[in-house]
Amino acid sequence: MTLLETVVVLVVDVTLGVWLGGTVFFSFIGAPTTFDVLDDGAEDVVTTLFSRYQTFGSILGFTAINLVVIAQSEAMLDSTSSLFISPFLLVALFVTIYAQIVLVPKMRRADGGFFHYHRRSIFLNSVSMLSLVGGLVCSHF
Fold first, then answer.
1. Is the dihedral of CA 76, 24, 101, 47 positive or negative?
2. Which of 12, 13, 83, 135 has the fewest other C-beta atoms within 10 Å?
3. Mean pLDDT across the stretch 11-39?
4. Other beta carbons less than 10 A from residue 85's beta carbon
5. Is it the case that residue 80 has pLDDT exceeding 70?
6. Burial 16-52, CB ≥16 within 10 A → b, else e
7. pTM for the whole thing?
């Protein structure tokens, strides 16, 4: 493996790791702590954080997908690895963009229905986390 190939694979792994780490942190530490501390005011804070968190995930997702496409076109990744990495990344990115474009605006407009959309966001985060884990695992086959 050349130095360039090593750097590309490392950046893909770091990008996926940071994305997964951010998702885990927000889901299990950031949002629950905000609800515990702020109680009634937590909805506004979590919605604002969620919007920024989704933007961060989208940037990381586009970065990872572009790197995988480049790596595959230059034969830097094993074709089997990139074949399996790509669908996982696309699912995680789709879920992230959906949450950013559709779910966050609904959460902001929800008058008393925040928790309905919050449950949906928990489901989407779970899908994203599982997809990112799948992408990381497949990047090492």
1. negative
2. 83
3. 91
4. 28
5. no
6. beebbebbeebbeebbeebbeeeeeebbeebbeebbe
7. 0.86
